[in-house]
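Recall from the previous lesson that a structure prediction takes nothing but the amino acid sequence as input. Here we apply that procedure to Potassium-transporting ATPase KdpC subunit from Paenibacillus aestuarii. The sequence below is the only information supplied.
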Amino acid sequence: MKHIWTAIRVSVVLMLVCGLIYPLVTTGVAQVLFPKQADGSLIELNGQTVGSELLAQGVESPKLFHPRASNAKYDPTASAGSNMAIASDDYVKAIADKIDEIKKDNPTMTDIPADLLTVSGSGFDPDLSPEAAKAQVSRISKETGISAQQLNELIDAHTKGRQLGVFGEPRVNVTELNIELLKQVKL
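The prediction returns the following tokens.
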């Protein structure tokens, strides 16, 4: 019986420490040291929250940059990859359909970057390669009247390099890019 009471006391103490005290302390420290990140890295436009730096937003307008495709339809409660093998007929058909869709929306695009064809593992990757963003410039320029040079400069200004100079690839956050585009041209 003595061992049971000891086990119960240890369990209660560990539940309080691990389930209450530790989360409260780490949340408090995060709010003090990194308040923007702790609140979800939210992006505001005209005083309203319009998205997060960490999540792709679904974009239908031909006047804006389109992010990577999402199997979860950009629903943050339904993170999902396709789980299709690249050799499967379903995957080949899905890529062929995506190529047709991209060519319909961007008739002047000849080389389609891979990240415009594939989805990220979570379905919410907010970043594109600079090449994938620049591949959309012709469509956006035609739709908005903004010169290709201005759009390319906007992409270059929002391109982030490799982390610590060596990790990952250069990338452009599509949500931030579209927000800046909306600010500059008042679409």
